[in-house]
Amino acid sequence: MSKFDTIVLGAGIVGVSVAVHLQKRGRSVALVDIKQPGNGTSFGNAGLIQREGVYPYALPRDLGTLLRYARNKSPDVRYHPDALWKLGPFLWKYWRNSHPHRHASIARAYSTLIEHCVAEHRALANDADAINLLRPTGWIKVFRSDAKRDKETALAERWYREYGVKFEVLDKAGLRQKEPHLDTSLLGGLRYMESESVSDPNALVMAYAKYFTRLGGRFFLGNATTLKENWAVETESGLIASNSVVISMGPWSEQITSRLGYNLPLAVQRGYHMHYAAQSNASLKHPILDVENGYLITPMTRGIRLTTGAELAHRDARKTPTQLSAVEPIARRLFPLGNRIDSEPWMGSRPCTPDMMPIIGPATRHKNLWFAFGHAHHGLTLGAITGRLVAEMVTGEPLVTDPYPFRLERFKV
Ligand SMILES: Cc1cc2nc3c(=O)[nH]c(=O)nc-3n(C[C@H](O)[C@H](O)[C@H](O)COP(=O)(O)OP(=O)(O)OC[C@H]3O[C@@H](n4cnc5c(N)ncnc54)[C@H](O)[C@@H]3O)c2cc1C
Predict the structure, then answer these.
(1) Is the overall model pTM greater than 0.70, yes or no?
(2) Which of 4, 319, 349, 372 is most buried, by the most CB atoms less than 10 A from its CB?
(3) Tens of pLDDT, residues 184-239
(4) How far is the C-alpha of 131 from the C-alpha of 303, rounded, in Å?
(5) CATH code for the domain in which residue 237 is found
(6) How many structural domains does the chain have?
(7) Does the beta carbon of 149 lie inside 6 Å of ligand 1?
């Protein structure tokens, strides 16, 4: 039986980043996943590293939007009616935390993590020879109505005032100069220039995982549900043991935490993607969010990736890509998309907590057990900084930022 200092369960962007940072600090680390690294939620996201994301995504509280959502036809948010009874308590807490006062206080904590997102990815990507996957171009929100433009601009001004988040206002001509092939009827846009994007999120995780093995770390295929306390896991190469364990299984983390007796208020917001060819000589340089219709298109290695908003459903319920079908014709008017490239839509599950912040830190009832999951819409964004923070906590080093807001104990478990 092989013995390690730490076993990291889950090789998405969070787990791989934790594993690299621990290995770099001289720990012997085993990274375990049921699949090759980067094939869970981290495979198919929109690739944004959201330096502007100081306010995590809240639930709208105005009656008009809620009624629109209730009709279940909105392109940005849909739900499976049969999932609502189980999601009810989660949604209630999420709604309460979305109150402007609470949301502002959450942002004060959350921004302490977000502020490191680009710098930490740049540092890791440099070490992993993957810096070419990061694009320092920012990303753009585009508008079709004065009302939406004014609302989004006021929001951007507030984030700048409160957190120094820089943005650039693009009028019609400015937008056209940045993206000549977008719909000419758009009124303009906002560019968050300090945010970055990734041209292939799966390749980024793979590059970090390769760097981890170059540092001497070991990757194992194995099922985390075989975890035994104090600590051992069955892998395809046999039983491995360790002094400590980090759970970083994104939306699947609950499989282990619930077995260990932690009753966490977790849920998922599912999302879909599809790749398209660009028509003739059309090209896209930035990720573009069509705010009024709740989808994003972005240039990726494989083609133009369209990602959808949130679907409230059970994690393992069948795929229902109705949001994708609803926005595809709209996206075709936004940008000259050609044929679909994928044979079927990809689906992933954003792992969510009701206060919109991840759980990062030690477990409360087990020694040498650590949690690093629940990054919701910002798991790619926060992967690298989470990896560093967890490694510093595990090794007892000075901490890059205060982990207190992200502690498990904020939930009654
Ligand atoms: C459509 C969409 C768009 C998004 N866009 C963005 C974006 O632009 N920017 C951003 O920051 N975030 C974005 N996100 C969110 C982001 O993708 C997630 O927050 C992030 O990928 C979560 O990473 P993770 O490592 O926690 O989980 P995952 O990447 O899901 O990793 C968990 C790992 O656990 C493994 N696992 C599961 N069960 C077991 C088991 N029994 N044994 C062993 N291993 C197991 C899985 O195989 C997987 O590799 C988006 C999400 C979606 C769905």
Answers:
(1) yes
(2) 372
(3) 999 999 999 999 999 999 999 999 999 999 999 999 999 999 999 999 999 999 99
(4) 20
(5) 3.50.50.60
(6) 1
(7) no
Question: At CB < 8 A and 24+ separation, what contacts does 175-179 make?
Answer: 175/140, 175/142, 178/140, 178/285, 178/286, 179/140, 179/284, 179/285, 179/286, 179/288
Report yes or no on 53 lying in a domain: no
Query: Is residue 405 situated within a structural domain?
Result: yes
Q: Is the CB of 381 under 6 A from ligand 1?
A: yes
CA of 15 to the centre of ligand 1 (A): 10
Return the residue whose CA atom lies nearest to atom 9 of ligand 1.
48
Point out the residues of the chain with pLDDT beneath 50.
none
Q: Which of 115, 384, 379 is nearest to 268 (CA)?
A: 379
Kindly report, residue by residue over 131-148, the tens digit of the pLDDT: 999 999 999 999 999 999
CA 405 to centroid of chain Cα atoms: 19
Which atom of ligand 1 is nearest the CA belonging to 307? Answer: 1
Domain interval for residue 232? 2-44+202-264+354-411
Domain-embedded: residue 162: no
* 35 Cβ inside 6 Å of ligand 1: yes
Residue 100 C-alpha to ligand 1 middle, in angstroms? 28
Distance between Cα 375 and ligand 1 center (Å)? 9
Q: Whose CA is nearest to atom 52 of ligand 1?
A: 45
- Taking the CA of residue 269 as reference, the ligand 1 atom at the shortest distance is 53
Whole-angstrom distance, CA of residue 199 vs CA of residue 303? 10
At which residue do the structure tokens 């083609």 appear?
303
**Residue 1: per-residue pLDDT:** 86
Would 388 be classed as within a structural domain? yes
